[in-house]
Input
Amino acid sequence: MIGRMGMAALLVLTVAACERDNPTLFNLRKADRTPDEFSILPSRPLEQPENFAALPPPTPGGSNRTDRAPEAEAIAALGGNAAAGAGADGALVAAVSRYGLQQGIRGQLAAEDLEYRRKNDGRLLERVFNVNVYYKAYRPLSLDQYAELARLRRAGVRTVAAPPDPATVD
Output
């Protein structure tokens, strides 16, 4: 017979496994308190100015000449004018939004993905033992690249060379 302590432990495990506010499929949890290496942006190289007297005053906690400017870099990478900012580049915005815009798309996609993750959060023991179920959960939504390549070639679309399908290689 299971004692009272065993029943209490079983009840606690059952209740703990039922619902989570933010289910995660990837189960990436850090055990230590070290910095996240993916949140650190490399700065531009230091350069010596021609005239030290002409430098602007320091801005503690503000930006400096070696800080990254992700928005300006993205505008420049897409062929826009980074000095004018995103609002001044109507042609760039028109090209990017040529297929239309949907207001609130980020919130809608986040809500749909959260609902999908809740439905595909893994079995009880996968959650208890912190098993990564990310790839299994999203497998039905992934594109079979070799089937798509074959479909495009049958349709007469010229495609780049691709490595052979590992499933068909002897």
